[in-house]
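re the bet — no i am not wrong, look at it urself. input seq straight from the record:
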Amino acid sequence: MPPPATPRLRGDLIRIGSLVVVFTLTGVAAYALIGLLSAEPDGPLGLGVRSAAFALVILPLVWALCRTAGRTLSSIGLSTPGRAWPPLATAALSAWSVSALVVGAALITDNATLDSAALLPALLWALLLAPLMTLAQILPEELVFRGYVQHLLGFHLSQVAVLLVQTVLFAGAVSLAMGSTDALLDLVLLGVLTGLLRMTTGGVWAGVGVRLALTATVIVLHGVDLSFGAGSGAWNLGVSMGGAFAAYLAIRFLFAARPELTRVPADQDALPRRRIPVRGIMYDVGSSYVPGQNSRERWNPEAVREEMRVIHEDLHCTTVSLFGQDLDRLEQAARFALAQGLDVWLQPRSLDARHDELVEHVGRAAELAGRLIEEYPDRVVLNVGCELTILNRDIIPGRDMRRRTMALYVFGMLPFYYNRRLNRVLRRLAEVARERFPGPLTYGSGTWETVDWTPFDIIGVDYYLDELTRGSYRQGLRALNRLGKPVVVTEFGCCSYRGAETLGGSGGDPLDWRDLDDRRVRGNPVRDEGVQADMIEKLIDVYETEDVHGAFLCMFVEGDCRYSPDPTRDSDMASFGIVRPPSLESGLSPDDGHWEPKEGFHALARRYGAEDLNRAVRA
């Protein structure tokens, strides 16, 4: 059976454009008819007209577009009632509760007045209008923009770009339909919020819920003639944005506690199961992320040689991805791996380096890779870097990794800014690597980066399952296949504590780096190695049933993240390693090969080494 075809960009753009145009024209026509009837757009008659337009035009068109493309309404976010009600109710109740608390606080502090006698009629009016508003406005907008448009764009753009494009289309189309730009800023904020909820849940119902609650709140407050006193702007902002933010947090907690609510990674249209060609793991030869820290203080060649044997014989890996700054260590580890029968991917890292220094370092690594591939033809790949937007300087502002990561929250809304800079330096890296290395080139991209893959032979992505990717995880893999080059997941994995399954690559956040001599773990996480093992199983299930050429688990060991029976000092549970380093009190060092396998180690070994792939899948 051939893989499901990744939709062509031109065809999808035509479909998206047609739907948005019809949505806008239908809205214009509905508002015009409401004007002819001398009705209020948000009154019962106006809402009835708009609901009819949705039922007669928009819903059938979305259904037809889905059917002709081999999709279902469920695939674009209209899940079954059992999956729809929890996010809808959670978002609605949390948003309404916080908005009510803000209004209550204003009344108690004499910063607001209302007509209490009008409260019951206002509540009854809200009960009448809110369902009509849902059918006339909320559901059509969520189905079109967070459902169909966001779903299709996900096959072609990065997550940030998808969020921004659907927001612009949504705000523009609704403003045109209304014939006014007065609410443009509110529409933009609404588009971003509901787009994030769509990413988090994989469906449109959380967005419907929060909008339903905020709409009902506005109807009630208008009915009781609520008036804020001093600081009215802040109070109004608290009612709307406070409720929206509370809904987002509540949804995050809900899906962390009940991840089964999303079909993620969804198995719809999955391919027949087959063995992943490149079955790999990452191996750190020594990395420093803050001054005074090194993940491998000492280099013990015999311990490294033995760990290459374990990776090949016990974990059943075909390939190891070696990363770090010291090129001598990279070469020695590579030779040990190649001698064991492993293929090698080399990923030189130079944290915080500027572009010229980075290019020089990759150039020397390319010379090393060139020597290796002469001795071991077709068994070496060069990865020119990893998530350069945050690991290196001069793409996103910030003199260290922590500051650049924080800056990404701002610059993430300006992907054209950092992607242009990123691709400029990637072209330089590919050019210098080609001059010295004749083998395949790749790059380990972050999900927020949009890479021009033209200079590379293999598409690489650090693709963790987290609250933003779980709604479209398979979709993201298929989007990468559109360029016709092999797709390899250059990093996947999870930490070993409860809740880490929702954090993906941010699972190490509880680690406190301020005192390297007394490393602490913040937030009281509970160690659970089963969380890591389950994530490994889940993602290998995806890769075996998608057109993925390879995957590298992150990682074998994080040597400076030591185990401790004291949960506040158990750095290992907040590491990505699948083996547990000994405690500091033991006097033993992981640099000398002292470690114990975790549950994730056994899960990976079982899946990579399985002869019968279907029997290997955990029930």
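see?? Residues 9-261 form one domain. told u. also The chain has two domains: 9-261, 278-502+526-557+576-616. so pay up
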